[in-house]
What does this fold into?
Amino acid sequence: MIIVSSTRRSVRFAALVAACLLLPLAQGASLALANPPSAGRGGSLPSRTQSQAKASLEALITTALSANPELAAARSRLAAARQRPAQAHALPDPSLELVVRNVGFPESTIGSEMMSITGIGFTQALPAAGKRPLRRAVAEQGIDVAAARIESVRRRLIRDVATAFYELAFVTEAIRVVDETKRLLTDLEVTAESRYAVGDGIQQDVLKAQVEISVLLNRLIQLLQQRSSIETHINRLLGRSPSDTVGDPESETLPQLDLDLDALQRAAASFSAVLTVRSEQIEHQLATVELARKETKPDFVLGGSWIHRGALPDMWQLNLAITLPIRKQQRQNRAIEESLQELGARRHERADAGLAVAERVRDSYLQVNRSVQLIALFRDGIIPQALLSLESAMAGYSVGKVDFLTVLNNVITLLTYRLELERQTASAMASLAELEEHVGRTLGATPGSVWQDTQPPPAGEPAPPDASGSVAVNAISSNGENR
It folds into this structure.
């Protein structure tokens, strides 16, 4: 069991303290304050989200569930499927025919010739007993398949929005961290220039600081492009224009977790929407097999007519015909075999889907486990050590015992570790969101309100505390603040 409890707030505070510690090192500090660096070289890039409203994960998911085109299409297919049972159960349309028969030409012989008649008749096809109920059953199973697909699309949509949200949170925080580091490097550059001006430094220090600032500017440009791409993806999921702005994500919490892999696998086996779709397809195909077998029975055709013979007495007749399945080997039997093979394919697909779901659940669980361990390692060990190393290097640089490149390398190293901490936090939340897709309930990555329409897992599913294979973590927000 791993408990992560330290905060990123201390990391930010320490970074600012480190920046402040540089000021006494610059013999030309007053000159630097009088001539601050330009935005193109060391200042902050303008933020287009400073005045925007925060993006709420719950609001984004709610919008997606109401406006996503793919989900709307799935709902329309369900509405279409509900129209099929009545059609399947209805009798075929009857036929109406008008008959005129005359002996001789061109004179009419109706009334004088027994074989000359006029009449009206109808025919009605009557499927064998049991066929219409089975056709209706097949159509009703189609409704169940369409409904299960809606839930599958719905859960996938929730997962996709949450994953994009946490990726946006990572990129937004990465922009802030990189920009903060760039400002720190700008202060270092000013210090190096001041020391070089009075003969205590070398020009290489100034040039190296400028190179690193340019590298960070390049990274900022890439991060800003990534943020725009993620926003475009979110807008597609929400059924909005690609150019709409999303805003910076609100702080979300990595919850207190006590996940047990066996319990997650059992919940996924019972409540995975993907497996529900496959199971409903099997039921639909079973009904199709029964219908194919029933199709070997002959159908009937009922007919009747009224015949007028002019001055002669009118006549009526009643007909009953039966279809002869004389091509049973070529048609009905092959249809039965086709439906049986399709049933076998559906069962294999269900088995494959079960293995795939189990694989994804295990993989997501392992990713959460890995991210939790790395969060603890970076937060409690690596980053505090990197901060101490940076402060020690700056102190040594102030008295001439450490060269400038050592300080610079410590700054870049700390940036790398801070970005990795952000990435692991986003990865943990995204993996939780994928687990939620399969178990059908919130585990803390998404709001519980979006799962209210989903069947809850059976009682007693949560694993006991300290179970083997469990992962525990204290509540940590997506921007790193302990809750």
